[in-house]
Design a protein that fits this description.
The chain is an alpha/beta fold. It has five helices and five strands. The relative contact order is 0.17.
Length: 126
């Protein structure tokens, strides 16, 4: 889904404030942003569109981020796209599980600022 030549990021986050903040910041940096508020919506969007990167929360209503990650990696449109997990879960087991399911990176929300997240996203989009 190359929007007018812009790189496109899908933000999967149920927290409206955080989702909006991240989207505005990425758009200010010249990226196109699409968002999903739950796992079901994310999977539908991933199936129908292509993205340059997916920023994925794990604690989502309904289908959780682990299931989204696993199912996205089985879809043609989600197989190769970098997926950066951004979650409150920070236990070693959660990080290992996400990486095993195909996460390219894992950021614990409490340890990163919005600037850090944006820098990480840009590092994958180069």
């Amino acid at each position: 889904m190359a929007t007018e030549g812009k790189k496109t990021v899908l933000i999967v986050e149920d927290d409206e404030f955080l989702r909006s903040l991240a989207a505005k910041r990425l758009e200010k940096d010249g990226l196109a942003v699409k968002d999903a508020i739950n796992g079901e919506m994310a999977l539908k969007i991933i199936k129908e569109e292509t993205f340059d990167l997916i920023l994925l929360d794990l604690l989502l209503p309904g289908t959780d981020g682990f299931a989204v990650l696993e199912q996205a990696r089985q879809m043609a449109t989600g197989r190769e796209v970098p997926i950066v997990v951004f979650s409150n879960l920070g236990e070693k087991a959660d990080i290992e599980r996400a990486k095993k399911l195909g996460a390219n990176d894992f950021l614990v929300k409490a340890n990163f600022t919005l600037d850090d997240i944006v820098d990480k996203i840009h590092s994958y989009l180069k």
